[in-house]
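I am still learning, so can you show me any protein sequence you like together with the matching structure tokens, please?
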Amino acid sequence: EDLGVRHRLWVYSGRRGVHCWVCDDAVRKWSPALRAAAVEYLSLVKVGVGGSGHPLTLVKVGVWGPGHPLTPLTVGVWGSGHPLSLHREALRADFPRRKDSAQRWELLRGCMERTRGRAGAAAPCYADWEIMLQFCFPRLDINVSKGLGHLLKSPFSVHPRTGRVSVPLDLQTLDRFDPFAVPTITSLCHELDTAGSDGEQEDGGETEPKRRARDYKRTSLAPYVRVFEQFVEGMESARRGERLRRSGGC
């Protein structure tokens, strides 16, 4: 929204990443400098790592300064003056006594609740949000975005290590997306063989190319293909509308 782009296709990489294909005509003509500036603008989290090796030093978030439209947060968790910084030494002592990350998180949340409830706190405590922001906000690959000659992985290609297909994502059902359940090259071959055997029995006179073109609709890849088709249809509709507007039509 901030950059005025409309046509964005999100594609699972097949391993642990996500590619965003921005297909607006204007964006495709951006220079490398403009592309780099856009990525810098969207790189909200500036990660800082302390030198002591203690786990707490990894929980240090730097965000863009006051006025950045993406966030109201302006201080790091352990920055000077942050309410939670008062508990730093106590947490250093208590963290090693907890057996796993879940217990450490509950310990940290307890400190946050006490900090929120303290009368006369200098500032609201957003530490839990800041920590989640640090670990959950996507890390953007600036080189892929700014390089006009950079190789890109096409939708529906197969990841060479996992065998998973790079499938388009439906943002309306994203909370139900399981990266480990996407089609693989092995599972698709099995599904196509099964579909082919059934098709031969049902349509013995159909030509091989026509049958193969239809068989993918009977595999687990079909809903992902539909997401891609809807994206392309949306782009085509927008382009027709733009041409009509420029020609003075109604």
Observations:
- The first strand starts at residue 8 and ends at 12.
- The mean pLDDT is 78.
- The CA atoms of residues 3 and 38 lie 8 Å apart.
- DSSP finds nine helices and four strands in the chain.
